[in-house]
Amino acid sequence: MLRILTLLLITLFLGCTGNADLREELPFPAQASGQFATKPKLILDTDTANEIDDLFAIARLLPDTSVDLLGINSAQWFHVWSGDSTVHQSQRLNEELLTIAGRLDIPHPLGSDLIMGKPWGDYDPRPSPASDFIIEQVRALPEGEKLVVMPIGAATNLASAIAIEPEIARKIVVYTLGFRYDLEGKFWNKDEFNIRRDLNAANFLLNQEDLELHIMPIDVAIEYTWQRSDVFTRLGQIGPMGDYLKRKWMERFAENDSWVMWDVALVQAFLHPEMAEKTTVLTPPENTRRSVYMYTDIDFDGMYGDYWTTVDVLDAASGF
């Protein structure tokens, strides 16, 4: 009897370790490189009125000629202090900034003002002009190409678009900011601002087997902290856009001598892969088990220098 029990225990142990090994070898979608034409097509999805780094992220993207910026969606960011209609607050700032830049020609559709599904879960989509825009742009892609969608706030608009038209998931590459991730312990923490703004949407994206997902966790993005004194000196050299960004900082966070440029870190990691490091990790156990990309480090100095080199092309008369 003892021998039989021993054999059973050995079998169970080997089975468990074998399963663990198998989980680590789950197939991973092809990387985004090589899936674009001359330059990546990008939609930025942003809760611009929430914090000031969204504005700086947009300012970084607008003059960049290495990407084809198809549009800037507004995203909701509701919480108890935010007031009503947060997506409309974001929409207003998007339009203000595009006006200053002389780039109202860039589509800037309104997103959903409600989370996906219900407060207790579910994945009912929230159709909006922003989700419609994502679907339209994916459908317009040549065969074999992919669209980059970058939610730097709640992922409501993107998740809704995929829920409405599930087949578009395989033609989208997502770069998103959110979550915490413990590299040593290999565990996730969804208790984070962007994720909590629409936990249903975050889970929905994690569950999409055909969706390539690149994540900048806030544990890494927090390294990208800017000092206001230096930032304001540099903004003083780029005309109306610089004045606008300074004014928004002082309107919202006058007491802050520094700010973590969370969203800018993700934008620059996407634009300059050599300035960031990432690895593949398994999704949380409550989600579809698959591999996703997780950023593990960024090059602060390289990113900071690149930011100001890029936005220095801003023209004092027209914004660009």
What series of H and E elements makes up the topology?
Answer: HEHEHHEHEEEHHEHEHHEHEEH
Per DSSP E runs of 2 or more residues, the count of β-strands stands at 11
Do you know the CATH architecture?
A: Alpha-Beta Complex
Number of domains: 1
What does this structure look like?
The structure is a single chain. The chain is of the alpha/beta class and 320 residues long. It has one domain (41-311): Inosine-uridine Nucleoside N-ribohydrolase, Chain A. The protein has helices at 2-24, 53-61, 86-101, 129-139, 156-164, 193-197, 199-206, 218-221, 228-235, 239-253, 262-271, 300-311, and strands at 41-46, 68-74, 147-151, 172-177, 180-182, 187-189, 212-216, 225-227, 258-260, 276-282, 291-298. It has a seven-stranded mixed beta sheet, sandwiched between helices. Helix 4 crosses helix 5 (156-164) and helix 5 (156-164) crosses helix 7 (199-206).
Would you spell out the secondary-structure blueprint of this structure?
Elements: H1 2-24, E1 41-46, H2 53-61, E2 68-74, H3 86-101, H4 129-139, E3 147-151, H5 156-164, E4 172-177, E5 180-182, E6 187-189, H6 193-197, H7 199-206, E7 212-216, H8 218-221, E8 225-227, H9 228-235, H10 239-253, E9 258-260, H11 262-271, E10 276-282, E11 291-298, H12 300-311
Parallel strand pairs: 1-2, 1-3, 3-4, 4-7, 7-11
Antiparallel strand pairs: 5-6, 8-9, 10-11
In short:
Helix content is 41%, strand content 18%.
Features:
320 residues; alpha/beta; Inosine-uridine Nucleoside N-ribohydrolase, Chain A; two-stranded antiparallel sheet; 12 helices; globular; disordered N terminus
